[in-house]
Write a structure and sequence with these properties.
By secondary structure, this protein is an alpha/beta fold. The chain has one domain: Nicotinate-nucleotide-dimethylbenzimidazole phosphoribosyltransferase (CobT), large domain (Rossmann fold, 3-Layer(aba) Sandwich), CATH 3.40.50.10210. Helix content is 48%, strand content 9%. The termini are far apart.
Length: 350
């Protein structure tokens, strides 16, 4: 059982032309800071001197986790399905931010432990009603894991065929910071203490219990080796679906906006499978979860925002999106020195 994605690195042919175009804008060299590197990355990903952001979309993948039986979360599992209902009724933070920035928002039932009613903004892709408790057995079978990855890829293909070239992935799943921490530790070797965070806001006693449970999980599953085995054993359906979504987006040359800890843990799995996926990723923010901060250092990337968020849902994606718009617009609409008939370029560039 294998995956067959084909991800090419963005072409470097336009790098010098993009850099020259950025430097000729009516500003001192480098004065737009991170927006300049962002514009360069978007241009390279789209292989264009005039990139555009078409039909920007956020997919929220929702799934439940058997590990919540061990008291690792401050909230009961039922909150997952209740929050999906909140997304569909338009009342969550991500709904507010998506409306503000005119982002398409679609919710995917990847494995919620409930029968969800039909809704025009809900895609039912349920693999199972939640994962197994991975303290006792693998979260899912390897075949189920691969099927879930392929489902995520198919969902992104649908958006690509609809004209989307800018996408982000949010998540909802009580207990999924536990999966994220275990995936991170297993795939990077970073000590578990640096991977585990407060998640939904657990107190000190709950945090110690969470850490102890996750350490037991690692002790129980000592012989995991490949990224797919690790994902199947320690992941969640929403996380595995995001893995496929990342890989298909990169394969199709779609610009990806990465959210917080869980979304980055899913990206870590995708990266271990196909390292080229990172070239298509813009990191929206630094989460308040310590694991996310360490994970960004592991990727050697710089996020656009640092707002101490730890919400998930794709909230960081929506908040960072206007910066991508600004990067594209200054590249395509800002005047050059020649166009503006401005003299003394050497003076302005110092």
């Amino acid at each position: 059982m294998a995956l067959d994605f084909v991800i090419s690195k963005p072409s470097e042919k336009l790098r010098l032309s993009l850099r020259s175009k950025i430097d000729q804008k009516t500003k001192p060299l480098g004065s737009l800071g991170q927006l300049e590197s962002l514009a360069l990355q978007i241009g390279l990903c789209q292989n264009s001197l005039t990139p555009r952001l078409n039909k920007p979309t956020i997919l929220i993948f929702a799934g439940d986790h058997g590990i919540v039986e061990e008291g690792v979360s401050a909230y009961p599992q039922s909150v997952t399905s209740q929050m999906v209902g909140n997304f569909l009724s338009g009342g969550a933070a991500i709904n507010v931010f998506a409306r503000q920035h005119q982002l398409e928002l679609i919710v995917i039932d990847a494995g919620v432990n409930a029968d969800l009613p039909k809704h025009p903004k809900l895609i039912s892709a349920k693999i199972s009603k939640g994962t197994h408790n991975f303290l006792k057995k693998p979260a899912m079978s390897l075949q189920a894991c691969i099927n879930t990855i392929k489902t995520g890829a198919d969902l992104v293909l649908q958006q690509y065929q609809n004209g989307c070239n800018c996408i982000g992935f949010g998540e909802m799943g009580i207990g999924n910071t536990s999966s994220a921490a275990l995936l991170m530790q297993s795939l990077t070797g970073i000590p578990l203490k640096q991977c585990v965070g407060r998640g939904t806001g657990i107190n000190n006693a709950q945090f110690q219990n969470k850490f102890n449970v996750l350490q037991q999980v690692l002790n129980h599953h000592k012989n995991l080796s490949t990224p797919l085995d690790i994902l199947a054993t320690l992941g969640g359906y929403e996380i595995a679906m995001m893995v496929g979504a990342y890989l298909k987006a990169a394969e199709d040359g779609i610009l990806i906006i990465v959210d917080g800890f869980i979304a980055s843990a899913a990206l870590l799995v995708a990266y271990k499978l196909y390292p080229e996926v990172l070239d298509y990723c813009v990191f929206s923010h630094v989460s308040n979860e310590q694991g996310h901060q360490a994970l960004l250092k592991y990727f050697n990337v710089h996020a656009l925002l640092n707002l101490n968020l730890r919400l998930g849902e794709g909230s960081g994606i929506a908040l960072a999106y206007p910066l991508l718009q600004s990067a594209v617009l200054f590249l395509t609409e800002m005047a050059t020195f020649n166009e503006a008939s401005i003299d003394n370029l050497d003076c302005l560039h110092t």
